Amino acid sequence: MRFLGNIEAKIDAKGRAFLPAVFRKVLQTSGEENLVLRKDVFEDCLVLYPESVWNEQMDLVRSRLNRYNQQHQKIFRQFVSQVELLTLDGNGRFLIPKRYLQLAEIQQSIKFTGNGDTIEIWAAEKVEASMMTPDDFGAAMQSVMDGELPLY
């Protein structure tokens, strides 16, 4: 399952958004029906997880934490308590609860950004500020991949 691309959209007065058709198709092809919404851990954006991907993430986090460590319990509690289970209506819309709109500082214009197995939802005017400059991105990729990218 791979979500790719950037799509601009609007939310309506009730806080509903249409999930872009290209992303709906990926969900349908994968047999996914439910989505999980949470605020990103680092950025002022929201993240949509297909339910199966969310369950994998939750299991991964749980596996790295000790149930008998108070700090670990607080981390896990915060990780799982700040989510919302969503389903698309018959028109492909979903409701973004007000508290999430406020957390991501979303007014009306949004940008969906495919992020592999998740979809980010940004206030349209904020997404560019989160990106690196081309030079910084190139240097970061070189550092992370350490020469492992194939030559073209």
Describe this structure in words.
It is a single chain. The chain has 152 residues and is an alpha+beta fold. It has one domain (6-145): Transcriptional regulator MraZ domain (Chemotaxis protein chec). The chain is built from 5 helices and 8 strands; from the N terminus they run E-E-H-E-E-H-H-E-E-H-E-E-H. It has a 6-stranded antiparallel β-sheet with strand order 1-7-8-4-3-5. A two-stranded antiparallel ribbon has the order 2-6. The two termini are 25 Å apart. A hairpin with a 6-residue loop joins strand 3 and strand 4. The chain has helices at residues 21-30, 51-63, 70-81, 98-103, 134-145; strands at residues 6-10, 16-18, 34-39, 46-50, 83-87, 93-95, 109-114, 119-123.
